[in-house]
Design a protein that fits this description.
alpha+beta; 2 domains; five-stranded antiparallel beta sheet; three-stranded antiparallel beta sheet; 4 helices
Length: about 170
């Protein structure tokens, strides 16, 4: 099973809103702030298995029933079944959802390439607050971080903001 990003829209956050939150009153480091925010939202995506901007994925699977690895599901773009060395259009499948999970079932066994879209049009407030806190922490302590301690930002209370958004498996 392999997941690849085909295309991704920008995260829908407001830099001025973040600067107000972080008490930053200049425009000198806007590029750096955008970098911290994008990194924080990408980390939130990894921690929760959700897409926080509209994203098109290619997912390769050989399971006859499988769940799509990112949510919230928007739609199927295409499904192709491997035939020899190529993939051909395939249409005999069913989609089912349970909560935030999306399951796909194929009528026959094989190797499939599923192209689908997932993501939010508006980032949930708790996720935005979590990302703003992560980005503000990176900004505040930017001169104290290096590659050895960058992943060691520990905010147990703040991390609970993502708990409601973590995707659990049901296949």
């Amino acid at each position: 099973m392999q997941l690849k990003i085909v295309s991704k829209e920008a995260f829908s956050y407001d830099l001025d809103e973040f600067k107000l939150y972080a008490k930053i009153d200049n425009n000198i480091e806007d590029a750096l702030l955008n970098s911290f925010l994008n990194s924080a939202f990408e980390l939130a995506e990894t921690k929760t298995n959700r897409a926080y901007s509209k994203t098109t994925y290619e997912y390769y699977t050989d399971k006859q029933t499988d769940e799509l690895p990112r949510s919230p599901f928007i739609n199927i773009v295409s499904i192709e079944k491997k035939s020899g060395d190529a993939y051909v259009v395939y249409s005999d499948y069913e989609i089912g959802t349970k909560g935030t999970l999306t399951k796909i079932s194929f009528a026959e066994a094989g190797e499939y390439k599923v192209t689908f879209e997932a993501g939010y049009t508006t980032i949930p407030e708790k996720v935005k607050l979590w990302a703003y806190t992560q980005a503000a922490t990176l900004y505040e302590y930017r001169t104290k971080f290096d590659n050895s301690n960058l992943q060691k930002i520990d905010n147990p209370f703040v991390d609970t903001l993502l708990d409601d958004y973590k995707v659990r498996s049901f296949v």
